[in-house]
Amino acid sequence: MEHVIEMLNITKEFPGVKANDNVTLQIKRGEIHALLGENGAGKSTLMSILFGLYQPDNGIIKVNGETVKISNPNDANDLGIGMVHQHFKLVHNFTVAENIVLGQEETKKGLLHLDEAIEKILYLSNRYKLKVNPNSYIQDISVGMQQRVEILKMLYRDAEILIFDEPTAVLTPQEIEELMKIMKEFAAEGKSIILITHKLNEIKNVADRCTVLRKGRGIGTVNVDDVSLETMAEMMVGRKVTFKVNKKAPRMGDEVFRVENLYLQSANSERMQLNNINFNVRRGEIVCIAGIEGNGQTELIKTITGLTPHKKGKLFLEGKEITHYSIRKKTMAGIGHIPEDRHKHGLVLDYNLAENLILQTYFEPQFQKFGFLKFSSIYTNARALIEEYDIRCGKGPYSIVRSMSGGNQQKAIIAREMDREPDLLIAVQPTRGLDVGAIEYIHKQLLSHRDNGKAVLLVSLELDEVMNVSDRILVMYEGELVANVLPEETNENELGLYMAGSKRGEVHVS
Amino acid sequence: MLAKFIHFITRTENRISVSSSVLAIISGLLFGLIIMIITNPLESIPAFFTIIFSGFTDIGRVLEIATPIILTGLSVGFAFKTGLFNIGAAGQLMVGAIAAIYVGVEWTFLPSSIHWLIALLAAGVAGAFWGAIPGFLKAYRNVHEVVATIMMNYIGLYFVSYMVEYRLYDLENARSLTVKESAIIPYYGLDKLFGRGDVNFGFIISLISVLIIFIILSKTTFGYQLKAVGYNKDASKYAGINEKNGIVLAMVISGLLAGLAGATIFLTGVSGRHLETTEVLVSEGFDGIPVALIGLSHPFGILFSALFIGLLEQGGFYMQGFNFAPEIIDIITSSIIYFSALVILFKGFIVKLYKKNNMKDVKG
Ligand SMILES: Nc1ncnc2c1ncn2[C@@H]1O[C@H](COP(=O)(O)OP(=O)(O)OP(=O)(O)O)[C@@H](O)[C@H]1O
Ligand SMILES: [Mg+2]
């Protein structure tokens, strides 16, 4: 009995797409097993099958050598399988403890009894250094914290097989490091871990073996120590991937966008969320806002785009003041926005892909006449973008966006925003959740956007991306810009110091 | 074989919708049958078939019953598509009704050829106004529309009683005055075509409304915006859609439809229905909710579920031929309706069940 989990010849078909095609995955006890594949390769689907959310059309699952039928997540729980989903499944107005016990509540005389549960939660969180307050509400805690809740949820149910679906996409580098440590600890205790991630160095760091999927098919399983990053990337996309982007020297022109003396006061305290922000972006330039998550980047972008109203400060696009423009007017004036939260702001999940691709432009003559939608051009538009940006989904323009894979949802937003050819493209973590091939592609797109004489304002938490793509770096710390540096004249160490607030540079509008 | 059939109808989302509606209706009927068996076991089976099928011999009456609830169903369903739960169709209907009666009784200066039309429009405008108020409160004051529409129901109810008692009172019959001949919605021969019953042009108006709402929702930029707001307010804001306007407009249209329903009920002759002073909300207003639920808020679904309910109520009338107390019949018909609606709330579950059956068959 060597394997704790065996998924043998699993096939799962959705309308128009074979998400899994005869895939085999075998997990040993105490190993960290990475699952690697392009966006839409079928990773989440395979794990959803193991967790009982989908039934396979074909194939069998063995747990500890015995064939089992996993009809729903409760069955999975009983078999010791737990999962942290790509998009968390927590009840926002419940407390941490309530979320963890949900479905397994202890009741006494019909009343919810949480004392013992809280004790167990505290014990687990101490043991694995997963700091949480069981009594906080989910809506009040950070994304990293929410993930800890999801992990505790698995541990609370005594899971022995832990599935992590892209856990690091939403974490800061520090949080990622902690998570990796915890995973190793789990493995040392004999728990088995399945880790989905697009970041190859994470696989290199923690995983023992790695199974690669491509377009629903299993390509093979390798020992991580025996292969290079390049080989893994190649197995995954089926061609060579260059990790370093080929960047021409920028040819900068006039100023496109300027922010002057921008302030934003926090809604429920005296604290300034944005404190006297001044910067500009020129034609042919990619300006990157770097910083540790939660230092005001989100607020800055929301203020610029108009999602959050503000009182003090001015915005200029092409020399014209746009401070008080409505969101639509800003969009029409030439601002594109790839938002941070793709499910909340970027997409109407229950609309199909074609409908989502006209979200800001449905009223333009191209797509309507006398108030009637021109479906043929709406779908032609969608087909063109699907082709150009390689968006992969079962039913093409008719795919309901909710059913698309996370990375392909992201590609849809990028396609929509870049296709309008905005003078200023604001991209907030545009490559979050994308596979290496797609990241390479998006970086190329950002660069060609800039080479076409447009401006790009990029917000990124990934130092790699910051160093590779940008022409100028602004660092944000506690709501202020603390550095304005060129990538050639700095390094990751120095950026780290700025980001941690232990160093300040000169910041002036160039 | 069965699995094949199920597979066939579950191929696309539409088919899932249709089949879950049908399944809901079937379970509602079975639930009704159980009540019949409990209350009158001997006659339960023939009575059961009577309630389902006898309506077919009386299409005219069925259409007459269906006319206003198609409109209130559309009212609730349209609001629902845009993310709003309009419980206020009853109030909007009554305010519409009183406006129609007022114009029908008082505005005798109108040319008789368009008198009824103006009365009908007055009902629409009044209903729209009544819907707009909770719309404004929701959009600009963040008052939940359920609370606001319930309150508007009661304000509307007392306003209507006042109007009936002090302005439009028919002393002899203790009810609202009958509208002038010229304000009665014309028949254009529909009553003859469908036999017994009172089918008038109101039925055609309800059909036209179904079509218009269908077109608005699925073909226009206006519908695109409204649905986007209903599905995801934050994304709509991001896209530059004015979600506040959307909310108000959706409630205006929703109220307008309910107001028209009021006109189709009360713009009739001496033998038709009249508003009483007993201070109850007209039931067609609330029937809109199960109609919209069973029809899954789709205009065509609403049309069919309203016709189904018409059939059921007319069948209930014939059930009186058996030994059932009229109250029991009422209980039975409304149980069937509300149980069906309830089942729809578990649509997701039904879909899952289908898929499971499907899967087993593939393996076995
Ligand atoms: N419920 C569903 N209905 C229809 N198609 C689906 C459904 N779930 C997934 N798919 C399709 O199956 C394919 C695989 O999706 P899956 O979510 O497993 O990809 P993934 O490997 O997790 O990708 P990503 O890295 O982008 O998250 C995609 O083409 C997706 O559109
Ligand atoms: Mg996925």
List keywords for this structure.
heterodimer; A: about 500 residues; alpha/beta; Rossmann fold; 2 domains; about 25% strand; B: about 375 residues; mainly alpha; 16 helices; 2 strands; about 0% strand; globular; disordered C terminus; binds adenosine-5'-triphosphate; binds magnesium ion
CATH-scheme architecture of the largest domain in chain A = 3-Layer(aba) Sandwich
Radius of gyration of chain A: 24 Å
Low-confidence stretches of chain A: none
Residue share in helix of chain B: over 70%
Strand order of the largest sheet of chain A: 6-9-10-3-11-12
Q: What oligomeric state do these chains adopt?
A: heterodimer
Poorly predicted segments of chain B: 4-11, 356-364
Q: Which kinds of small molecule does this entry bind, naming each only once?
A: adenosine-5'-triphosphate, magnesium ion
Q: Tell me about the largest β-sheet of chain A.
A: 6 strands, mixed
**Counted beta strands of chain A:** 24
Percent helix range of chain A: 25-40%
Coarse morphology of chain B = globular
Q: Please identify the structural class of chain B as seen in this structure.
A: mainly alpha
How far the N terminus sits from the C terminus of chain A, by CA atoms, comes to 66 Å
In round numbers, the mean pLDDT of chain B is 86
Give helix and strand order of chain B, one letter per element, not per position: HHHHHHHEEHHHHHHHHH
Percentage of β-strand residues of chain B:
under 5%
Tell me how many strands of chain B there are. Answer: 2
Domain tally of chain A: 2
Named CATH topology of the largest domain in chain A: Rossmann fold
